[in-house]
Amino acid sequence: MPHSSRAHLDAIGIPVWVRRSVFRAARQEQPSPATAAPAAPAETTPTAETAGAAPSASAALDAIDAQVRACRKCALHRTRTHTVFGVGRADADCMFIGEAPGAEEDARGEPFVGRAGKLLDAMLAAIGLQRDDVYIANIVKCRPPRNRDPHTDEIVACSGYLRRQIEAVSPRLLVATGRVAAQSLLSTTKPIGQLRGRTYRYGEDRLPVVVMYHPAYFLRSPLEKRKGWADLVRLRAMLAEPSVSVS
Ligand code: URA
Ligand code: SF4
After folding, report:
1. Domain 3-27+54-240 is in which class?
2. In the prediction, which pLDDT does 247 show?
3. Per-domain residue ranges for the chain?
4. Using a 6 Å cutoff on CB, does residue 71 contact ligand 2?
């Protein structure tokens, strides 16, 4: 196992006896992703959201982002510092969806940049992916005060932006991280413990949805990381398949 992979796994706390065999199997299924993609066209603002994107997808995302920046459809607009639209490859195969911006994300206007975000980066790295290889967004684009759960009316008000974001990126699969993302995307009230580790379908295109625990959960319950690792390995295998089948 290359030293760097080991370091990534150490970072997320995967026990040695699990990681050796499983990680090697996962790596053999697909080579590491290609190196950095070309920069966005000169006439568009080269934001982090659009870097490396296919022009049409990134233009569509820019247009939705502009609407989100001006949005006042729910009460969360009153307390936000920045809207947090999304980041990563506009033509990514894999789109991660979290819950809502926290304090750090609200301050910077970028999703998953706080402690949970660092852990998400480490989890991605453990399966050979970088932030720039995937697309990352949230269910709601503005921070709920004191990081409370977003209310149903806020989720509903914001859902059109996410739906169009998913259409623009058109990923091969969605990864719902945490209860709020999973329940919102799948329109269910089942607990995350029952939902995780399985694959569902989203929208008219029946896009596969992998449900995982939220990285913040692993910060609170480090012993559960083993389940997170199992989910990551499954995700890696699904991404390596020519067409994603739901198990
Ligand atoms: N948690 C989330 O669900 N999303 C973020 O962007 C940050 C933390
Ligand atoms: Fe608009 Fe969504 Fe922000 Fe509410 S959370 S103000 S719907 S962008």
Report:
1. alpha beta
2. 53
3. 3-27+54-240
4. yes
